Amino acid sequence: MNRRPHGAEEVRSAVLRAARKRFAAEGPGASLRDIAAEAQVNLGLLHRHFGNKAELLGAVLTDVVHRAQQGTAPFSSLEDALDLLLEGLSRDDGGSDEYVRILAWMLLAGDNPREYQTEFLVQPLAGVAGPEGRALLLLVLAAGFGWRIFGPHLSAIVGYESPAGAAEDLAAVLRRVIASADEIRPGPARTVDGRADDTS
């Protein structure tokens, strides 16, 4: 049997781990009592360290962001940032999967994740991308976040034997799109005959 957590840091870590797992599986409606039981702490201790459910949810999201930022150097270019995101498609990273699932549950419940956290992994990426690269960043983020939710299901439907092979192919296609980005960056509006529309 596992030893019950002792001391403030152990308790906080155990609660955050249990809450991340429960919120990812059940959404914001996950029971604080179940989270406390899984963390092997009493409910009063959970409340003492995290307050209410909204504060615990915010702490979980912030903790995932902080853990993901550890050991990562600042991005020197949009290409480096996009490459790191694409590498993540084929990596089995439970923390990222849980983070994306929690966000999905929150959005489906009508909650705004920005009300629960102030730091996001995407913010530094958006700064590197700038206005001219944000559409590419959006494409890779949409693919990556969607993959974490629907990847195994969709890859089987379209005939892949394993999600890993599908993830590699998806990343390869996205890399080709990125490589041809100069051709697809948003430009001036065009008329039907292809000329730049100078009326705007």
Number of helices: 9
The helicity comes to 55-70%
Mean pLDDT across every amino acid position: 84
The tally of beta strands, per DSSP, is: 0
What is the domain tally? 2
The biggest sheet amounts to: none
First-residue to last-residue Cα separation: 69 Å
Gyration radius over CA: 21 Å
Backbone structural class: mainly alpha
Sum up the overall morphology in one term.
Answer: globular
Extract low-pLDDT stretches: none
Strand content: under 5%
Order of helices and strands: HHHHHHHHH
List descriptors:
200 residues; 68% helix; mainly alpha
Question: What does this protein look like?
Answer:
By secondary structure, the chain is mostly helical. It folds into two domains: 1-71, Homeodomain-like (Arc Repressor Mutant, subunit A), CATH 1.10.10; 72-185. Helices cover 68% and strands 0% of the residues. It is built from nine helices and no strands. The chain has helices at residues 7-26, 32-39, 43-50, 53-69, 78-89, 94-108, 122-157, 163-179, 181-184. Helix 1 (7-26) crosses helix 6 (94-108) and helix 5 packs antiparallel against helix 8 (163-179). The longest helix is centred in the last third of the chain and has 36 residues, at 122-157.
